Amino acid sequence: MIGYAWDAEVFTATDVMESVAVTRSTAIDVVDELVARGLIVELPNARAVGDYRKGRPARRFAFRQDAAFVVGLDAGRGHLTATVSDLRGNTRAVEHLVVDADDDAPEIRRRAAVRAVDRALEIAGVGRSEVAAMGVGLPAPVDAHGESPTDRAEFWTRMNPGFARMFGEWVPIVKVANDASLASVAERTLGAARGCDDFVVLLAGERLGAGVWVDGRLLTGAHGGAGEMVAFDHVRGVDSAWGFGHRAVELARTAMATGALPTSSILRRMAPADIEGKDVFAAAAQGDAGARRITDEIGGSLAVIAGVFGSLFDTRLLIVSGAVADGAAPLIEAARRSVADTLHLPAPRIVASELGADIVSLGAVCAAVQEARRGILDLPRFAQPA
Q: What mean pLDDT, rounded, does the chain reach?
């Protein structure tokens, strides 16, 4: 019943009967209970709003999307983005916090995360006690308990310094997950993967990460490492898990240093240290021959990546997401030209995400809303009155 109300606009007991397949008495009893719990509000009846014709006016109800709130946190290495939304995922506030990527001691990471979340709550005018659920995305594998395994450099455990335990001290429901996995949740809920069961979201920031869906399920693995891109260190034509922006900068600087960059290239007017990935992509979009050669090379790597995922998981769709997506058209165009040659199965369609740089935070909100739907009736603040 609460699931029906969560998705419905204004409804009546008759609407509930038809959609949930319960008797009228059950529908009325449960709706009244949910009103008492504070999750549904009764609206003025049909007569009061001028929709009454004859007979007894129907009671009208609506879900209270502001009965509680959720928080989505993108806990990246050099930035944190906190988004506060209502129970239907409508954004109330967003806070961006830039941090020193090299100063990632656990206590510093924890303080920065709390600061970003508390600031977003303050902007939204929401108290901690009003938060029902929280999603946290970070650049590391995350298991079912919200913990990350230890890698050789201990990077994953630095990125995840006990966020599940820390936020669990005051948030009733906490979901910590890999950032690319949450980006894929955002795409399936809000973006290009709606209605698609078999797809990959490639989060192409400083490093590559992937959220993989097969048969309508997000793959996670024993330690949360499904989609971990370190495997591409061993794949010819990709050779590393560095993100596309990083690759573009390195290739541009190398071309400039070796004299391979045409004298007419826009990039030659820039100091090598000032070149960013977005500059290379923008120049390629304008037809710059030197930048085009760079995006063609990166597009070739993207085609190999799409081919590997297409061969392993029979993927229908690959979505390039994150901040790089806005300028990814040239490399996606290059990848599309050659991806069919990388596998025997039908090649996945390659597209750019339209969800922007905050996709991980949006995915964390979507995950928090999903968790709230599953567990909100068990929260003390929504307990049935005695």
A: 94
